[in-house]
Specification:
Layout: H1 2-21, E1 28-39, E2 53-64, E3 70-79, E4 82-91, E5 96-100, E6 104-106, E7 113-122
Antiparallel strand pairs: 1-2, 2-5, 2-6, 3-4, 3-7
Length: 124
């Protein structure tokens, strides 16, 4: 049993070591924060029953960490299980630019969000 636990720990360490040193060459570095604003939602028939509606977007920066220009950078997020995205058309070597995703309506005051993926094309 003790050797099994040691083998499992070695495998987990090898996996994280691989991710850190070999698979971490990201061409685009993405950072983002969620912005939430409350929108009044009224129901004519029952104004006291309606729960508040929130609008959520993500604002952040994208930086090209490679020495080659890239184009059509598509940044995809999920906010409360709903897809949203932003597009950057051109990003030169070492260049950093801001982006804002499309708005998502949600009933959650503090919705969960995470970066789904980043897709881009090399510029030639």
């Amino acid at each position: 049993m003790k050797s099994f636990i040691i083998i499992v720990l070695i495998v987990i360490g090898a996996y994280f070591g691989y991710q850190q040193y070999f698979a971490s060459e990201d061409t685009v570095k993405i950072t983002g924060n969620i912005l939430i604003s409350q929108q009044n939602s009224y129901n004519i028939n029952a104004p006291q029953v309606s729960s508040p509606l929130y609008i959520a977007t993500i604002q952040g920066t994208a930086q090209n960490t490679s020495s080659k220009p890239i184009k059509n950078v598509f940044i995809k997020y999920k906010i409360s299980g709903k897809n949203t995205s932003a597009m950057i058309f051109n990003l030169g070597p070492g260049e950093q630019t801001s982006y804002t995703t499309k708005s998502v309506k949600t009933r959650a005051k503090n919705p969960s969000f995470h970066l789904e993926n980043v897709i881009y094309e090399d510029s030639n």
